[in-house]
Each structure stands twice: as C-alpha cells, then as structure tokens.
Amino acid sequence: MNALAAFIQRFRPLSALLLLALLMAGPATGLINAYWSRTVMLIAILSLLVSGLNVVLGYAGELAMGQVALYAVGAYVAGYLGVQFGTANVVLALGAAIVAAVLVGLVTGIPGLRLGGWSLAMVTFFLVILVPNLIDVFEHFTGGTLGLAAAVPTLFGMEITGNRLYVLILVVTALWFAVARNLLLSRHGNMFLVLRQSPILASILGVSVYRLKLLVYVVGAIPAALAGALFSMLDGFIAPETFTFSLALSVLAASVVGGATSVYGALAGAAVMQLGQQTFTQFQDWQLVIYGAFLLLAGVLFNRGLAGLVNDGLAAARRRGWLPPGPSAAAAAAASAQAEPELGQLRGAVLRTEGLSKSFGGNKALQDVSIEARPGEVTALIGPNGSGKTTLLNLICGFYKPSGGRLLLDDEEIGGQPTYRIARLGVARTFQTPLIPKDMNTLAFVATGRYVTHRVGLLSAVLRLPAFRRGYADDNAEALALLRLLGIEDIADQPVDSLALGTRRLVEVARSLASGPRVFLFDEVGSGLDESDLVVLEQSIEMIRRAGGTVILVEHNFPLVLKLADRIHVLSQGQLIASGTPAEIQANRRVLAEYTGATDEEPETGPAGPDTGPETAVIAEPAARKGGQ
After folding, report:
1. Crossing angle of helices 67-85/34-53, nearest 10°?
2. Structure confidence by residue, pLDDT tens digits, 365-408
3. Is there a contact between 599 and 593 (Cβ–Cβ < 8 Å)?
4. Residue 151 in 3-state DSSP?
5. Cβ(240)–Cβ(69) under 8 Å?
6. What is the enclosing helix (H) or strand (E) of 2?
7. What one-character DSSP code corresponds to residue 504?
8. Strands 519-523 and 550-554
9. pTM of the model
10. Is 203 in a helix, a strand, or coil?
11. Cα–Cα distance between 260 and 262 in angstroms, integer?
12. For the segment 18-38, what is each residue's pLDDT rounded down to a tens digit?
C-alpha cells in the first residue's frame, strides 16, 4: 500500500500532464463533441477568474471583489485591439489585457488597499456595479449597449478558431496554473497566508504590508485579464450583460466550493458551477437565490471546499499509515539521530531608551522611561497589568510612535520608524497571544522568519530556478534545526494552528530565531507552558544569551524572571520605579509593596528575615537557586 501511494505521489505531476494532453486531444480524436468542447473552455475561463479571487481573498485575505471588472477590462481591451487592426494577434491581445487590468486594478485598488478590509471590499464591489455604466461612458471604444464584435484571433498568421482556439485556451489556463502553483507553494505564498492572518505579524517579519498587498492585487488581476481576453476570442462578441453582479457571485461560489486556499480548487469549483449553471438554466429567474443558498450550504458543510476535503482525507491516511509521511516529518525523523544542535553566534545590539514617553490622548502610558539592554544579557521588564510593559515593546517594534524621548538601536534612532524597517534592523518579537496563520504547517511557519533576511526572488520562485531550490532547502533545514533545538521537531508537518498554546509559544520562539536577529522581544512567552516546556524555554533563552543576542523579557512568571534575568526594570503606572540585579530587586521595598502589599511599617522580609511571607518566598527562592548555580 505504501509503495503504491509513494508511486502515485511521485508521478502526480505526470498524471496532471497526461490529463491535460487527453483534454487537448479530445476534440480532434472525437472523444469530446462540440458541446463539451465549449463547456471545457468555459470551465477553463471561469477557473482563471476563480484563481485570481483565490489569490487575493483566499490566500491574502483581502476583500477584493472586483474580478469581474478586471475580466471586463481584459475582454474589451482584447476586443478593441481586434477592431482597430482587423485581426487580433493572440500574444498582443493577452499582453495588452494584462497590462490594462493591472493598471485599472491599481488605480481603483490603491485607495482601498491603504485602508484595507471593508474599504477595499466596497471600492471593488461598486466597481462591479458600475461596469455597465462605464461601458456606456466609453461607448466609442466599447460599442456601448450594442456590444462589440471581436475580430478573429491570429497567431503566426494562422486564424485561431475551432480546435486551435480550444487548445490555446487550455494551454493558457495550464500555464497560469503552473505559475500560480509555483508562486503560492513557495515562501511568497506562505507570506500571503501570514498577511491574511495578521498584517501585524507580516510587518514584524520585516515585510512592508502595503507593498505585499499591491503584489497580491497585481497577481490576482492577471488571470482575470487572461480570462476576459480569452472569452472575447471564444464568443467573438462582447456585451455589458456578460459582466454582471451574478457573475461575481458565481466566481465567489466557485471559490468557496473548490477551496479558497487551494491552487487547483479553482478548477474544481469552476467545473461545479459551470455544469450546474448549464444544468439548471430553467431557473434563471431564481439565480441569485440559488447562489445565495448554495454559498450558505457550502460554507456550513465544507468551509474549506472540495480541496479541503481531499487534504483532510490525505492527512487522515497518513495518520493511519496508509500513506508515507510528508517530507518534513521524514526529515525530522532523520534529524533526530544527529548530534544535539547548537545556536550559532548572534550579533547583538545595544537597545537604549532615553526619556521615552507615550501618551494616548490624556492617558500617559509611559513617562520618561530610560533603560538599556545589552548583548549577551537578559533584560527583564516586570510590573503589574497596565504598567506599560507591552506599550514599551510596541514602541520598540514601531507599532506606536513615541510622544517624547529617544529610542536607539546601537547609535541609530529607530523611534517612529515603520515596523517592517525596525524588523529588518534585527528586532524580532513574540506576542502574548501567538499570531499563528492557518493552512500552513509548522516547518513552513518557522521558515517565514527567514523571508526577508534570506529572500528568494519572485521570478526565481515562479520558474523554480536553482536559487529557489537552494533557498527553499536551506530554509527548511534551518527551520527544522530550530524546531529540534527546542525539542519539537516531531510537529514539523503538523498544521501550526492545531498546536496547543504552550507549543505555539515555542514555535514562535523558533520563528523569531530563524532570522538571526540582534534583539529578541519576548512578551510573556512563558505563559501557558508546562514544566517541561518551561525548561526548554529557559535553555533557549540561555543559548541566545550565550550566543551574544540581546534579550528583553516581559514576563509575569517571577521565578522564571529571577532565574534568567541579568538586570530587571520595574514599571508601575507607566513609570520606571526600580532597576537593578535580581538580588537588588527582591530587596527593594517599593517593588515588594507593588507585588506583596508590604509597607515600610511592616518588618523586614526576605530570605533571611523571620517573617518571610509566601509571596516574598516565591520571589526570593529562585534567586537563591541562581546564586548557587
């Protein structure tokens, strides 16, 4: 069984090529008649539209519903060129359609992309609604309500009609899906998934969120333009009635049915919708109702689409041993027999705040805070909830701009710089609530930490050049080594969003290590960890310190802080009330007052005092252990 499964998995690309060859040869050999030939072409064109929506909405999470508008642009540009020149050169028509759709997409999308979310959705939604009106406005080019008769497409002097057009549409569709597959199944596609889950996470990885959104939008416009141009060649006539809101619903329904985060789910969804539409043409008046009900049922019954059902089945088969394990799991098993991994040398930096302040209106979250974190040391920030610890981390990361004071990384002022630029300077961070993307395995998520520092170009990923293969292998090897460093290499192939909270925190530590940063910001990373995981975390932070990294630790687990910290800064109500070594902090009466309610009138407390209370003991005991180590 395993041998057969391995054979199928190895030759799966060949089987896809064989299916494509059979489809292309179908009309010429009589296997496919004229009716099914047109149906296959319509499915191919619809799948291009769905693929563009999957890239923008499914992968990147951007609510851009303007695929039909870009589809219309591609169709009318290709049709107009044919009218102007008498014949439509296929290459020229497809190229012009792509350029026009990208330009229109950027002009209409840039304002919405700046705001994102529902603003982008409304801009693109109204664009679809306005398509018929825009066609009337540009009647000279579009033919208005009368429509536009497209010229016969040509290539190398040959008219592309009949079986030739059938082959052309299948070839263009296949080429696009090859490009989409290579792009989406790369680190760039993984970063799209990160963007969908959290723009904040994308920026902390060193990615300009706005530029990434532009890239996604441009990529999603390309298949829509191709679909429009091919449709104009297929029908030979373009009319406003083609580009309706119901078509936009069809595209959305096909995306849901096929699977929005699947490369080939667009093909399955398009086939279901096209065949369903042809089967139930007598219900044309109820089309919107049927689509709405279909979307509702599809979302409830299988919210990951047909592709999700297939992937779940494959995962279940691997768990039962019917299929061989994935490559990440196999690599993890092989790595477990190797020597214990070690963390390489880190080039830490001095991070210093000078009179740093932050106000939100009349609320002073931080007031005149000055601290310094040095390479090879763990600097802890402690204080009660609302004391300003996370606000300070957010200022360091660039989420907030300082209201006053300075923030220096070595001698460079970083206060107020964009988050992605600060990340590129070597500042990495974890979060109180781990930001974990869906539809990505653990190994791939850890490797996203290297996306900017070990970048592989877009063209190299699409063409699968040697630089991509080397970079991909290096990313996986480094990510696997970091997982093994933390003792969790066995989860490399598991979906990262399915992990327990404590394991997620360790995975975030591995992700932050992947870029080889200079400064580590750990925000309550010990929360939710059991004893064994805490031991791993302690060892990891110790390794970072020994390797020369700069660690800033925000943590409510005081035994952990006292065990790890070289220097502790105590915040209360946005002010720095104490700084010193763990021994100095545990003896500071003001700090004890903050945490234990002790007052100056109460007797001395501490490790040697007669009235050491339970809270004070919790603070003092780890320091005693540390002193004995």
Report:
1. 120
2. 999 999 999 999 999 999 888 889 999 999 999 999 999 999 99
3. yes
4. coil
5. no
6. helix 2-10
7. H
8. parallel
9. 0.83
10. helix
11. 6
12. 888 888 888 888 888 888 999
